[in-house]
Design a protein that fits this description.
The chain is mainly beta and about 250 residues long. The longest helix is centred in the middle third of the chain and has 8 residues. Helix content is about 5%, strand content about 45%.
Length: about 250
């Protein structure tokens, strides 16, 4: 989930809807962290509750009910570049049901933690994304485990010939390094990617990846402003050769 808001005016707040699909009440609390995207895809989080006014910051959603949580930006209205935050919504481990006290019984309670990305951007700013490099590569998939005579008979009840472990075919990908020199963030999952190069036999190869495919591979594809870089790894379905690969973006 992604919310893009402004540092000023009516657009400076995000609305997040939480629905309780359980048959018991859902107690929750919220927290805000400032996030820094590193080039290798890792994220650093820093507590930043003081940058937002959240209402309600905690509560209880009734079974089947929907709860709107509003996050109002109260940070620097004169910020010069985009900033990214996570709002975390944590279910509290409160037991609203009486449980058996029998010594032979046991219960497991599952609680949920959800995060939504909130991007705060100054008005009238623009991103400027440059392709630093595009590299063809492969990702090795886990091998398909072997089946044994014992395991087959246990599942089917009949003898069968066991099969050896099989190495899965590697997945062709491109590793793309992007740099954003603008003052506004860039969301790379919102555009189509067009890759031009040659295959392993030297023949021309052009691959167009839809915004949906990019989103499925890298998520939002957030590239920070002010010289921020990200390396995004995207499956291509077909393998490029050793020649240069050109990447362009299309709406």
């Amino acid at each position: 989930m992604v919310s893009e808001i402004s540092t000023l005016g009516a657009g400076a707040s995000a609305r997040i809807e939480v629905q309780n699909i359980a048959s018991t009440p859902l107690p929750y609390e919220t927290s805000i962290t400032r996030i820094t995207f590193n080039a290798d895809g890792t994220i650093t989080e820093t507590p930043a509750d003081e940058d937002f006014l959240v209402f309600p910051p905690q509560g209880v959603a009734a079974p089947g009910a929907r709860q709107i949580i509003r996050a109002q930006w109260i940070g620097d209205p004169a910020a010069s570049a985009s900033m990214a935050y996570y709002m975390e919504i944590r279910q509290l481990p409160v037991d609203f049901e009486s449980r058996s006290t029998d010594l032979g019984s046991a219960a497991v309670q599952v609680v949920y933690h959800m995060k939504t990305l909130i991007i705060v951007a100054p008005p009238n700013t623009e991103s400027s994304v440059q392709v630093v490099s595009v590299e063809a590569a492969e990702i090795k998939q886990p091998a398909v485990p072997a089946t044994t005579q014992t395991s087959i008979e246990a599942i089917t009840g009949t003898p069968a010939t066991p099969t050896p472990a099989v190495d899965a075919s590697p997945v062709p990908v491109v590793k793309v390094r992007l740099r954003n020199t603008g003052q506004r963030h860039a969301v790379m999952s919102g555009v189509n990617w067009v890759l031009d190069g040659t295959d392993r036999s030297g023949q021309p190869l052009k691959i167009t990846l839809s915004a949906g495919q990019i989103s499925g591979a890298v998520g939002v594809g957030y590239v920070p402003p002010q010289g921020g870089e990200r390396v995004l790894t995207v499956p291509t379905g077909q393998a490029f050769g050793d020649g240069p690969i050109k990447l362009s973006f299309a709406g």
